[in-house]
What we know:
The complex is a heterodimer.
Chain A: H1 10-38, H2 40-68, H3 99-135, H4 137-152, H5 155-165, H6 170-196, H7 200-207, H8 212-249, H9 260-267, H10 276-303, H11 308-318
Chain B: H1 2-29, H2 34-37, H3 44-54, H4 60-72, H5 86-121, H6 126-140, H7 143-157, H8 170-199, H9 202-210, H10 214-252, H11 257-266, H12 270-298
Helix pairs in contact in B: 1-12, 5-6, 5-8, 5-10, 5-12, 6-8, 7-8, 7-10, 8-10, 9-10, 10-11, 10-12, 11-12
Amino acid sequence: MPSSIPVSGTADMTRALSSARSPNKTSAFREILSTLWHDKVASLSAALLFIVLICVLLGPWLLADQARAVNLMARNAPPFSLSKGWLFILGADALGRSLLARIIVASQNTMLISASAVLLAMIVGGLLGLVAGYKGGWIAAVLLRLADAIMSFPSMLLAVIVLFVFDPGVTNVILVLAVSRIPIFLRTVRAEVLEIKERMFVTAARAMGAQTDRILLRHIAPMVLPTLINLAALEMAFVMLVESGLSFLGIGIQPPEVTWGLMVADGRNYLGSAWWLSFWPGVAIMLVTMALNLLSNWLRIATDPVERWRLQTTVGKND
Amino acid sequence: MGGFIFKRSMQSVFSLIALIILVFFLARLTGSPADLYLPQDASLEVRHQFNERLGFNDPMYVQFGRFFIGLLHFDMGESLQFSRPAVDVVLQAFPTTLMLAAITMPLVIVIAVITGSLAAFKPGGVFDRLASLISLIGASTPNFWVAIVGVLVFAVTLRVLPTSGTGTPLHWVLPVAVLTLRPTGVLVQVVRSSMITALSSAYVKTAKAKGVGSRAIIFVHALRNGLLPVITVASDQAAGIVNGAVIVETVFGFPGIGKLMIDSVMLRDFAVIQAAVLVTALAVFIINIVVDITYALVDPRIRYS
């Protein structure tokens, strides 16, 4: 165990830090929450995303029947009318199914697809980026050329072709989206690693005889993580838009399954008579994307020690 | 500079070849065109003849070799759906998309640079908040949804704009507006933050102390330095505009390359898919090289050797 040798003092420091932090963990969490609370826009976004999360977890379980129940009395029922119950506040579709229930049920597919695609891209792109940044050489050259090739080609067209070849199920949509976003993570992580690997603590770890994988995963990766999480929130917003676009074009998720993009596409046929069919799912996409963008903005400032004062001074002002 | 352009072009050629190989084999995995173009009760012999005539019976590597040799004479095979050379079909659709991009891109850059710079001049001011909010909405709205809502409001309800097709300049208003929205939203935010950095630098303070007017400070002194990240993002948006064009062309029935590509995938028109992918990729690569050169022109500190 090379890291337990108290030669340079780094091992002592890490041990001291970790033992000091564990009893304080709740208060650090509370501190984050209070900073968040003082930024009204960011807390609103967080609240919205929390509601969506609840919809994703509980929605299909609670409302699956209501979302499927055909009710010919309520065909294309207009929104803002409570006469048919609160579920019909956003109106009903051509088969009289409650739009609100359908949007809540569809949130699961929409969010799960984007989240898994981003997570996959983050893990694969992050690991490749660590290797490309730390090792350099021909591995990095090949990886970067490949990333360039993927990046410079419009992802939508590649997705169109790939999804037409392999059948457009949930798994394939996730894979296509993940592959098209891996280059972003790869490049970002590589750029960070290039800078971090020159720092003293990496040299120290190497001098103490740490293996490459240990240096990468234990020393460098935690330094890259804040940037990565931040990027993931932004990417999630982008991937959601692309996924909705694919579903809209009819080459993403296929009909028995339902996503917000597909709901917008379905509503297109009733544009003249029932605008709400396309309108509300689009609003849902827009709100979640906005919330993700705003929260990622806030996260970027909150996790950057150089910029954090901006949030903290506003905290002081509000107090 | 010449050496740099050569090196960049070589890199692009590598990426292009990788892309061509990928598309060639992927397109052939979609299934046999014979199922689509011959009647269902066609005899095996007819099918065989069909495949023989179009060369689909040869082994994959022979087909690829033929395709690659043809490529060197700008011959990309014949389109199944139009019975014309694929290159002609693609080049006929390309100007429409190019036109869309050529109108959209300058529009995006001009709007974003002006709005972003003015917003950066007084961070936290009314204009800044308004610009930030609107650009955020622009960047977060799915463009197919905006297209639909646009059709609903301007074509169905107000009846001032046509729903789809090309022809009069009025037909271009909605597609261009929809296509402009997202890149502008993204770019305004980039311009704003890079201009805030530029405006807090020492040379801007010097200019202020000299008594230079605020408009000159923003657009002459700061903008030139604030422009670099803008160029990078703008070039990323070029690929994004092609993405957007696929959707916009589909919604508005524009005969551009995006719609052509989707139709060709559905109809298994391999030759057209390959030609379209190649032409689009070529266009995107040219844009990327142009962006790199612009970089060097705007920032004299960058020297390519």
